[in-house]
Design a protein that fits this description.
CATH architecture of the largest domain: 2-Layer Sandwich
Oligomer: single chain
Bound molecules: zinc ion
Radius of gyration: 19 Å
CATH superfamily of the largest domain: GTP cyclohydrolase I, C-terminal domain/NADPH-dependent 7-cyano-7-deazaguanine reductase, N-terminal domain
Structural class: alpha+beta
CATH topology of the largest domain: GTP Cyclohydrolase I, domain 2
Mean pLDDT: 85
Low-confidence stretches: 1-9, 11-37
Number of domains: 2
Number of strands: 7
């Protein structure tokens, strides 16, 4: 089932998207986690981009557009490179440490591509977790977000996938992931709401079951903000 052409950027308030996700049991565990590298077919992208240019009434043979199909092919190979990477390799470097308080990394910048319009959405991810004997190098959280975001995505799945990886692969006792993003498919087309931001969150383990733990991690995420 395809989302409608005018699908909103942020599926959270879209009952159709929610219904599809619910019906398919679409969760982070069912998200594709490719581990086998498969090369991107640049020539095929180039042919397709040329077709799009013709279809919109352009002349792909004029000077300014001659290199565009090849450029777009390289761009997609980069933007979707996460399809051919397994984020779990960054979790295998976890090490043993007796620390059982909240670890939080805020403001992890990312950019991704909305799978409904193939337009970019970008923002910041905040990741907090309570270790259960194993902690992760702080830069690895950024690596995980990068791999997962470099795929055709919806923000909800990105959020959920990162949270589930930390539960399943790191065995964290609690995981909180908050993602804030601006979707260009909402700001430059369709309803054109510049400045609107989508916020998604996923709370697992102690952050889901324990109200005060959740309040603590949210205050750590939002606490010292001036705006
Ligand atoms: Zn979109």
């Amino acid at each position: 089932m395809q989302p409608p052409d005018d699908a909103p950027a942020c599926g959270s308030d879209d009952p159709e998207v929610a219904a599809v996700r619910a019906a398919s049991g679409m969760g982070p565990t069912s998200a594709p986690i490719a581990s086998v590298a498969s090369p991107v077919d640049h020539a095929r992208i180039e042919r397709a981009v040329r077709e799009i240019l013709l279809a919109v009434g352009e002349n792909p043979d004029r000077e300014g557009l001659l290199q565009t199909p090849a450029r777009v092919a390289r761009m997609y190979a980069e933007l979707f490179s996460g399809l051919h990477q397994d984020p779990r390799i960054h979790l295998r470097t976890a090490f043993t440490e007796k620390y059982d308080e909240v670890v939080l990394v805020r403001d992890i910048a990312f950019h991704s591509v909305c799978e409904h319009h193939l337009l970019p959405f970008m923002g910041r991810a905040h990741i907090g977790y309570i270790p259960d004997g194993r902690v992760l190098g702080l830069s690895k959280l950024g690596r995980i977000v990068e791999v997962v975001s470099r795929r055709p995505q919806v923000q909800e799945r990105l959020t959920e996938t990162v949270a589930d990886l930390l539960v399943e692969e790191l065995g964290a006792k609690g995981v909180a992931v908050v993602v804030e993003a601006v979707h260009t498919c909402m700001t430059i087309r369709g309803i054109r709401k510049p400045g609107s931001e989508c916020v998604t969150s996923s709370m697992k383990g102690l952050f889901r079951s324990n109200v005060s733990s959740r309040a603590e991690v949210l205050s750590l995420i939002y606490g010292r903000r001036s705006s």
